[in-house]
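Tokenised fold entry reproduced for absentees:

. . .
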Amino acid sequence: MKLPSSTATDLNKKGMKHLVSTQDLSKKELEEMMELMAMLKKARRDDSVPHLFKDKSVAMIFEAGSTRTRVSFETAATLLGGHALFLSPRDIHLGGKESIDDTARVLSRMCDIIMARTNGPETIDALIKMSTVPVINALDTRYHPTQILADFLTIKEHMPEGKKFEDMTMAFMGDATDVCRSLMLSCTRFGMSFKQIGPKKYHMEEEWVKIAEENCLESGATLEITDDVSRVSECDIIYGDSFYWSTQLDEKEERLAAFMPDYVITTELMKKARSGALLLHCLPANDKEEVTRDALESDYSVAFDEAENRLTAQMAILVYFTNPYRITPTQETLDYHKNRIEDFLKSI
């Protein structure tokens, strides 16, 4: 007896959305995500998060480790009534004994959504090619959309009364990281002006700048890539990120020499920004390198609110991307299967 799959298995289901970059979402969809995040955060505050991920599972593939990404996705799935599976390269045969293609096909048959934090874009792209459920990019060296959704909710919560994203300018202090790239594309999509401020050697690549410039033509935002620290005087948000990562340890001393002290976020630098400017940081923070502890602990720092909003963002992502495929069974259907199985168990 051949039984149908319990999940839709048509490859590349028509209209199925994945989250690789915020650039994949329209401004309207991004605004919907913001609204959903705010509602879920209020529900969590009231200890009343609806189980919109009930009996569902998220497969979490981690090629690269993370505190906030793992904890936020696992907690989000639990709060929403579902389950999260942590899958490191030691736990599954990803790209080793089993191809990424086959991994995607198997996980699609067992889980409702796949999240991956990878060491490169190849894994994400391969998962999307073969997955029959939504795939969420939790960092792939190009983009970090789950971080950026948390960032924008945090900005929305803390920006001055009466201001809109279009009225604000963000300065990213540092290298052309995946976070910088994602922020640049998202700011210019929302209409927020963006500046990358850092040494010329570490400026954003031209191919990505062109995409952001196209966003600016639609949104009215402005874009500037500069090594002039004084440009923070035009900024409402100062954003920090590490000057080097684990894959760049051989460049650590060279990078620190290039960025320090001019591009370090200090209380003195924050005073040069616009009145009421916010300090954001995606964390983890390296004290006395890209940001000083007194700046990170100041009243204008919202870095830890931002970290909490990673949980808010993940709740919204799990709900938003699985909602089109959510089935709410009738009581009649529930009773039918319960009674049928219980009668069978009594007979054996």
